[in-house]
Amino acid sequence: MNYQSNYSIKGQLRTYYTGIPQFIQVSDHQFVELELAMQWMDLMQIVVSATNCAHLYGIAQARRSCTDNVDDWQFGSSLTTEQVWDSFTLLALLDYLQQRDERLIVPHDSDQKHHFTTTMYACNSQIVLEGQDKLPHPCCACMHIFESPDGTLRHTEVIVTDVEHHALKTVCAVDGCDKLVMVDTETGKNHKACKDPVHLLMETANIDSSRSGKSKTQHQKLARLNGAIGT
């Protein structure tokens, strides 16, 4: 048995200790502070790439070296995109499995980039099939509730379909409506709603909201961050 800071190794398996460590071991001799990894996760939620996270960290370290006496510091501070991604993946898996009272067990006989693939697939499958306790509500940016002329409430939402439900692609997306969608005479493409004028208005409002709301905010944040990186 070989014991490391975050995990133990037995044979060809790596078993992580319970809990989330204060310093995440992303490779044999590289560690990332938990708070820093959480900051990267927050940045990546607003469309900041792992490459830019590493770039921002490099800028911060360069400024620090100009103001602090780090000549005697025996450790390096260079950071790669892969290490940012490993921090993100490890923290996400450890947090998810801890909530389920499970331990992270991965292979130890392959490249680092392949260690977590199987576990990531299993966790994603569990979320798709079982959902998440923290999110018992629909996404407000993706689902919209409308009141029909008769006073009833209907909702529309973005969905991801698979082969089994492919036939529903031509059915109106408004909840409770089973009519066929309308075809755009100019483009030949299908609408998401049927020819009911109210349902078409619901589709238009849903598209306009998606374009002008969440996306606009993300683009503004990304523009500011990219501007900071460029300087």
Description:
This protein has 6 helices and 8 strands. With 231 residues, it is an alpha+beta fold. The strands form 3 sheets. Strands 1-2-3-6 form a 4-stranded antiparallel beta sheet, with no helix packed on it. A two-stranded antiparallel sheet has the order 4-5. It is elongated. The termini are far apart.
Write the SSE topology:
Elements: E1 2-3, E2 7-10, E3 13-16, E4 23-25, E5 31-33, H1 34-44, H2 50-67, H3 81-99, E6 105-107, H4 117-130, E7 143-147, E8 153-157, H5 197-212, H6 214-230
Antiparallel strand pairs: 1-2, 2-3, 3-6, 4-5, 7-8
Helix pairs in contact: 1-3, 2-3, 5-6
Brief descriptors of the model:
single chain, 13% strand, two-stranded antiparallel sheet, alpha+beta, four-stranded antiparallel beta sheet, elongated, 231 residues, 41% helix
